[in-house]
Amino acid sequence: MSKPPRLAVRAVIVKDARLLLVNAYGGGVSDLWCAPGGGVEIGTSLPDNLTREVHEETGLTIAVGAPCLVNEFHDPAHRFHQVEIFFRCEITGGHLTEEWRDPEAVVTERRFFSPAELETIRLRPKSLQMIAFDPNSALHYDPLERIVK
Question: Domain of 77?
Fold first, then answer.
């Protein structure tokens, strides 16, 4: 029996020429970083899901803009396949603080990275940096790749 792909949404938030990222895995399992966001709940719009996820992970309130990237990855061993839609977003309220806690305890680190700093970390998807700093780019698609930890 096959499982359907999981749908997720992610926020591309650039402030002062720096991209907001969160740790991809909780508990120090990996040094991988990604854009804030998460799984879509049935019956809730993509922007509403993204607003909820970003607030849970960062404490920030956002305005959701246009989609800019579709990414997909899979883990064949666990029959997991995820499709992510990235949206350009702007912060409308809140600040990053050390005190903020993700209720699901997945995100434990959150910070803004300059383009130069992005070159020194592991980031997925790889095209995120290019998309983030070119607000006029067309919608981009990253083909299916294996999940990395």
Answer: 6-146
| Maximum average pLDDT range among 39-48, 71-80, 93-102 | 39-48
Token pair, residue 45, equals 């719009």
Report the sign of the C-alpha dihedral through residues 140, 146, 147, 148, in that order.
negative
For residue 66 the two structure tokens come to 């246009």
Cα separation, 3 vs 50, whole angstroms: 23
Residue 1 in domain: no
Task: Return the CATH number at 79.
Answer: 3.90.79.10
Flag whether the pTM goes above 0.85: yes
What is the rounded distance in angstroms from the CA atom of residue 136 to the CA atom of residue 117?
22
Q: How far is CA 148 from CA 7, 24, 31, 35, 71, in A?
A: 18, 10, 10, 15, 14
Number of domains in the chain: 1
pLDDT, one tens digit per residue, over 11-29 is 999 999 999 999 998 888 8
